[in-house]
Amino acid sequence: MKTTIAVLTFVLALTLCAGAQQQISFTNLPLAAQPAPVPSGYYGLNWNNIFYVDPLKWSGAGPGFLLSSVPNRDVAFVGSASCTCCPPVHQSCSGSISGSSTGSNSTTQVSFQALSAIVAAGFHPNDITVLAYSHGNFVGMATYSLNAQLQTLLFPPSWGEITQLTFQTDAGGDLVFYSLAVNFSGGSVPPQ
């Protein structure tokens, strides 16, 4: 009996210390009829070259933008017209998510563990590469093939705690985010 209680107490302590999982969606952002940058600090993260839009109100949305069963819902994306350089030649595109620095004069970044993302290609099948960094040091990468259907990307658990995720699309490709699951370090969830 004492062994069972000790094991249960240990498992509970691990669960409480593991961090707070957060499912990040873009429904809390104001509806946008035209692409707008995801604001810095959204869910306590910095968003670089990642945009959001209400695909039902945007004439530029491809089929992979229109997969939500929830009307009037913003999605985020990397690519599309934001990365088209010189038609008919298309360039690859990248966007990143990083932990916000804490404190006004601090350079310490908030760590997080990337768990998964629900995504689609916006217009046509393409490949994306996801790179993970911890305090500027390369941790790992994974490549995924997307199509204009919802799919769940599972990020490698071996990446552990990181401070930045970079998403690179192939030439002319794009990536639409419906949600992103992360664990924030220390059990606290940054405000939205």
Question: How would you sum up this structure, described in words?
Answer:
A hairpin with a 2-residue loop joins strand 8 and strand 9. The protein is built from one helix and twelve strands. The protein has one helix at 2-17, and strands at 20-24, 36-37, 45-48, 51-53, 75-78, 93-99, 112-120, 126-134, 137-146, 151-154, 164-169, 175-184. Helices cover 8% and strands 38% of the residues. The radius of gyration is 18 Å and the shape is globular. The strands form two sheets. Strands 1, 2, 4, 5, 7, 10 and 12 form a seven-stranded antiparallel β-sheet that branches. Strands 3-6-11-8-9 form a five-stranded antiparallel β-sheet, with no helix packed on it. The longest helix has 16 residues, at 2-17. The protein is mainly beta. It has one domain (20-187): Sandwich (Jelly Rolls).
Q: Give the helices and strands as they follow along the chain.
A: HEEEEEEEEEEEE
CATH superfamily, by name, is: Protein of unknown function DUF4465
The CATH topology name reads Jelly Rolls
Q: What's the total count of β strands?
A: 12
The total number of structural domains is 1
Query: Count the helices. How many?
Result: 1
Radius of gyration: 18 Å
Mean pLDDT: 81
Layout: helices, strands, pairs:
Elements: H1 2-17, E1 20-24, E2 36-37, E3 45-48, E4 51-53, E5 75-78, E6 93-99, E7 112-120, E8 126-134, E9 137-146, E10 151-154, E11 164-169, E12 175-184
Keywords:
5-stranded antiparallel β-sheet, 7-stranded antiparallel β-sheet, mainly beta, 12 strands, Jelly Rolls
